[in-house]
Amino acid sequence: MKYLVIGLGNLGRAIAESLTRIGNEVIGVDINPHKIEAVKHTISGAISLDTTDKDALNTLPLNEMDAIFVTFGKDFGTSIQTVALLKNLDVNKLIVRGISPIHEAVIRSIGVAEIITPEDDFAGMYASQALLGELFKQWYRVTNTHHLYKIKAPTTFVGQTLQTIDIEENFGIRLVGIERPRTERNLIGLKQTQYSVIDKITGDLRVEEGDLLILFGKMEVLHRLAEI
């Protein structure tokens, strides 16, 4: 697939290089020639130009891209102007880094549907990890208020049925899935742990040691799980 990444700061560079590593064709764009120099050997192509200039922007192969990322982290004006021009040029999928609530409101008003907020995501993950401690495995944002959490099954749950535990009633969070480990040998005979998803959640299902619980709900209730 083909991607255009506009803004080659820390986030933009990381996105561009990660997409390239997994086999995609990526063009990076930034007005700063030093940032172009830093990535020219690690992505498919890098171009120095002013993306607030419509004529300059129009020289890029915009319609060939599967998605365009706009990743400016500080320059509110440059981000808004770039996004407005891209929308005017009727590009395909546009993904924009949100800088502030006002910035997000403005870019949504001009038709941007996909906004990434890495600072908020890191804060959410860190807060979840701090609350859950050793139980924490993964965190995913679903909405501003509700998230998905993958946690190790607390030892007090092991051996009990889901009906007895009643996670939603007692802890205010919903169980949506369980990943259960199993040990297998690979091609060279070494043991490794693989996880299978239990997608039929019934009240008589017993929690086993090593289970990973997939939960959906608000962060405010996590302390109830951490305290058991």
TrEMBL record:
It comes from the Bacteria. Signal peptide: none annotated. Residues 149-227 form the RCK C-terminal domain. Residues 3-118 form the RCK N-terminal domain. This is Potassium transporter. Pfam families: TrkA_C, TrkA_N. GO terms for biological process: potassium ion transport. One of its GO terms (molecular function) is monoatomic cation transmembrane transporter activity. It comes from Parabacteroides johnsonii.
